[in-house]
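Record type: monomer structure entry
Structure origin: computed from sequence
Chain ID: A
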Amino acid sequence: MTTLFLATTGGHLTQLSGLAERIPRDPDSLWVTHENEQSLSMLAGREVEYVPYVGVRDVRGVLRCLPHAHALLRRRGITRAVSTGSGIALGYLPYLAARGVACHYIESAARVGGPSMTGRILRRVPRVRTYTQYRHWSDAHWHYGGNGFDVYEPAPRQPRLGDRIRVVVTLGTATEFPFRRLVVPLSKTLAAGGDLEQATGLPVEVLWQTGGTPVGDLPLTATPFLPAADLWDALARADIVVSHAGGGSALANLAAGRFAIMVDRFARYGESNDDHQRELAQELAARGLVLHRDAGAVTVSDLLATLQTAVRRVAAPRAFELLP
């Protein structure tokens, strides 16, 4: 028996990697995703086939997946497929389901209020089992199997600052959605001689993981993308983390034990294709796992307040339940 794990890079891949550890394993498995610094690092040591990127509402990209889905079925005898989306799931799951493969689509934990466009389409595809990570909108069509954030809980933290304050600002991997509303004011707060340095008397060292946000005109050194392992190491060493409210970034912050400030993107500013990030930030704040703030409203007091809380893993998280 062979399981296909299928996801777009970014938050979808991060979520699937975590959920895969809570799903009963088949003797053989294969991952299909896009190739970038994150996927090469995160999936090192696993069997992976990389395919061209499938973007948002990318019909041609979806159609390009079909020959590969056919080839995988013939060559590898796929018996089960599990995906967290997004568009890439449309290129594989309907085809595989029609040919008898047990297909499972797990809606992103970022979708707190209801399914994404991908989810709404796949819910209507025969023999594709669909899952929500929230009980409050589960129903006969959307099975609740668990939540990727259930494995984390807040814990007290004793701040121990060294000779400098290490800050990570992470904006995720989406290339089509810039987020300058966060970066521009924050670059002033975190600059040499800026408000944070003046408040603490310590120099501030910042890793700016900027994704697709253009920052060439700002006084900062950007690292648009970096391997997942390198980002995790930076997060684990950071004193303070400021993050966009993406599902993958949230999971990376939590896995590193960081209680981050989370700032949500809005569609009306061209920062996202909808406003689901606000729902996610509010959900994580209600769990006590993040401090939720609006872009442009992050203060020095907010930054320093995060030093009082850490995040730890629950000792024995329960399995994610797939339907038979």
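Annotation 1: Residues 38 and 228 are 5 Å apart (CA to CA).
Annotation 2: The radius of gyration is 20 Å.
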